[in-house]
Write a structure and sequence with these properties.
With about 200 residues, the protein is of the alpha+beta class. It has a single domain, classed as Aminopeptidase (3-Layer(aba) Sandwich). Helix content is about 20%, strand content about 25%. It is built from 4 helices and 9 strands; from the N terminus they run E-E-E-E-H-H-E-E-E-E-H-E-H. Strands 1, 2, 3, 4, 5, 6, 7, 8 and 9 form a 9-stranded mixed beta sheet that branches. Strand 5 and strand 6 form a beta hairpin. The chain is globular. About 25% of the residues are buried.
Amino acid sequence: MHSWICQSQVRSNSWGLPNTACAPLRGQGGFGSCNGHNWRRVYSTLAQAGEANVMPPNSERIMTIEISLNDQIEGEEVLALYRANEWSSAEKPERLLAALRGSHSLVTARIAGDLVGLANAISDGHLVVYYPHMLVHPQHQGKGIGRRMMEAMQCRYSYFHQQLLTADGDAIEFYRALGFVRAGKTEPMWIYSGDEH
């Protein structure tokens, strides 16, 4: 087994998912073992000045985005991401972290080691998967990070009978662009104890 490094030379404020060229990367985990959670991809994107507090003004450099299905998460970095997106689940930190760590799959996105994106899946492991959370830090939205995290999920769940999620606001068009459609004549329903997400 080997993993892949996928590089795309696009400006990081580009809206579409760029074409990528993949080449083998040896000794850095595995690719192709999605069901075993052994999945990792690294993308290099041309960054804009001032992004991620890693560059001086008026300069450009390559910014590396690492997407992983086998990452470890720390409480404070997760809460910072949820608070940056104003999700109310950040106000229930113990339950939020337990839920994420108990997920069937958890995908992370990191830039220079900093957590900038996170998505999770709940599944029976065979037929149905539900994607409850996908967040990208507001400073890094529009760079294809969410699409790449869903690509990691598709590596594991693309053959499932049903893939479900709930979308609102701008997320509706984002998920439509990824191939999700309204489920027939269904009506979304919930019992919800939060203010936003």
